[in-house]
Amino acid sequence: MGHHHVQVSELEPAPDRPSTKRSVSDACGLEKLAAHVYEVAPGEEIPLAYHYHDEQEEVFYVTEGALHVETPEEEYVVPAGDAFVCEPESPQFAAVPEDGVATTVFVVGAPPVDDVHPYDPEEP
């Protein structure tokens, strides 16, 4: 058995990200899911691009602020205490607009595969 108490604020942020990403799953060596905490300032985004996954399911749980998630159908505003779920092959782009407030989001994805594909909303 393995148990981990993780002090998220003590984790080193991932380099070269548009917002602060602290990986709980990397700190614990988890292999079946990805778990990250994002601190997103106004004007910052979570992903590196508008994208979708082949297999990975994702859950974005907003703990502070409000996250804006753009999809091909509409833009959602997800307030603190709510979650946004992305099924595989569902394009999304998560960010905090310039006029938004600092937002903290706990994101879980499974399986933790690198199956990300860029999505261009201008293409049919």
Features:
single chain, 124 residues, mainly beta, Jelly Rolls, five-stranded antiparallel β-sheet, three-stranded antiparallel β-sheet, 1 helix, 40% strand
Task: Give an overview in words.
- With 124 residues, the protein is mostly beta strands.
- The chain has a single domain, classed as Jelly Rolls.
- 4% of the residues lie in helices and 40% in strands.
- It has 1 helix and 10 strands; from the N terminus they run E-H-E-E-E-E-E-E-E-E-E.
- The chain has one helix at residues 24-28; strands at residues 20-23, 34-40, 51-53, 57-64, 66-70, 75-79, 83-86, 93-95, 103-110, 116-118.
- The strands form 3 sheets. It has a 5-stranded antiparallel β-sheet with strand order 1-2-9-4-7. A 3-stranded antiparallel β-sheet has the order 6-5-8, with no helix packed on it.
- It is globular.
- The mean pLDDT is 95.
- Strand content is 35-45%
Question: What would the CATH topology be?
Answer: Jelly Rolls
Structural class by SSE content: mainly beta
What shape does the CA trace take?
globular
Runs in which pLDDT lies below 50 for 5 or more consecutive residues are none
Q: From the coordinates shown, what is the CATH architecture?
A: Sandwich
Number of helices: 1
Helix content: under 10%
The CATH superfamily name is Jelly Rolls
The total number of structural domains is 1
Radius of gyration: 14 Å
Count of distinct strands: 10
Order of helical and strand elements: EHEEEEEEEEE
Spatial separation of the terminal alpha carbons: 48 Å
Q: Characterize the largest beta sheet: strand count, sense, and whether it forms a barrel.
A: 5 strands, antiparallel
**Spatial strand arrangement across the major sheet:** 1-2-9-4-7
